[in-house]
Amino acid sequence: MSKVFVFGGSGRVGKDLIKDLVVKGYDVVAGARHPERIVKMDHVTPVKVDLHGSVDDLMDKITGCDIIYFTAGSRGQDLIQTDAMGAIKTMIAAEKVGIKRYVMLSSMLSLNINKWKTIPELEDYLAARFFADKFLMDSTELEYTIIQPTNLVEEKGTGKISLNNSESQSNPIPDVAQVLTDVLKFPATKYKVIEMTGGDTPIDKALEQVK
User: What does R_g of the chain's alpha carbons equal in angstroms?
Assistant: First the structure.
């Protein structure tokens, strides 16, 4: 089974993602600025990661892994160095060590510049996400999947989503984590940007429909 590296391993989505990956049989290396906050369980190795560091530092952390997840975020406090450049440096590092599969947690509307003005409080965040997403898509040869949820809410997961942005404006965090995990089962999710909200379609069925 593949070994997975999760950037943002102590975050809200990262914690659930790590648990889901372990249940699926993966060994996980979880990186965070505060590794003591990473969930403690078998098959999880916590490591300290500083996204302000160099590409070489990140290469040392991820060597030996097969898949990269980027779920880190500054929650508006460090948008350039964490949400934008931090993400970009992990992509460069992944390519340098020969990792191909890369799954990004982004945000709905990051690539739709014309709609940023409708949510001015998020405009700077979406700009940071835009640069990271565009670099991944246009400036790497990574086998990427970009997951773009709307508002993350700390609610019990439903196991159901919508990929047409018509039924809900929020996403329970456990459902986002499950989508991130389950895209690995569906080769057609490679090189795709997947917008998601809460909904009524079971996650596997929704991802099966991605072509």
Answer: 16
